[in-house]
Amino acid sequence: MTAIIEPIVGRYVHVDIDGVDHRIYFEESGSGIPLVCLHTAGSDGRQWRHLLTDPEFVQTYRIIAFDLPWHGKSNPPEAFAGDEYRLTTASYTRTVRAFCRALGLDRPVVMGCSIGGRIVLNLANDHGDEFRALIGLEAADFQQPWYDTDWLNRPDVHGGEVCAALVSGLVAPQSPEATRRETLWAYKQGGPGVFKGDLYFYRVDGDLRGRLSGIDPARCPLYLLTGEYDFSCSPEDTLRTAASIPGAQVTIMEKLGHFPMSENPAQFRRYIAPVLAEIAQRQTA
Q1: pTM over 0.85
Q2: Which residue range forms the structural domain that includes residue 79?
Q3: What's the pLDDT tens digit per position in 125-149?
Q4: What is the C-alpha to C-alpha distance for residues 50 and 134, in angstroms, rounded to an integer?
Q5: Does residue 237 sit in helix, strand or coil?
Q6: Is residue 4 part of a domain?
Q7: What is the domain-level CATH number for residue 23?
Q8: Helix (H) or strand (E) holding 186
Q9: pLDDT of residue 284 exceeding 80
């Protein structure tokens, strides 16, 4: 066989969330420390494919990226009757914890971007003892909305095109054209109302200002990394958040925007590699 076959394996797991069965799609690669990756609003786990195929990382980590319900290959549950989808802090937290339990993961590392970065802060605050480290990309306790969500689910516009256009400016200008297009392609394929429902968490329900006093990076290390070109979660937003969390480690990433792992994987690797190495070293110490 001459074709290149990537080491990623995709499967479905049935996860009970609040008494409702969810058939969740996930992809994984590697072995070792479990590393669960959370995608951005309106997208799916494809954003992590470059991390999943990194030959060095998969030697130390079992990297797992799953599609939230309603996203990617994770359909809405069978009980879904067409009512409006809305992600909340409570439902998002329960989903991540239930997924980790379903796979029997022992104190995994969780890395999330954007809404995934926001929920990482809540996991650190309320459930830090369940994780060996937490990594928030483009994470802050709150951002002022800069968009009109009424455009995101209308019958007279192409919702996917609007979603992609909305986030296109969040990609750093140095990002390669191919990975820029790939990042935006997933947004063009999102289900109706899904991006808008995710942003309900991001701009309304997930306001964590003044609610992070329970975070203790001495027990569960917390890493916050934000791209210098991100104007949705700006470096100032992340630095402001970190100032209220003694011990949190903050890095502002050059030449990166809001989607570091997918928009410019090589540049992102320069920043995430030392973080993953430090977590692994602490594991063996």
Answers
A1: yes
A2: 9-284
A3: 999 999 999 999 999 999 888 777 7
A4: 20
A5: helix
A6: no
A7: 3.40.50.1820
A8: helix 177-188
A9: no
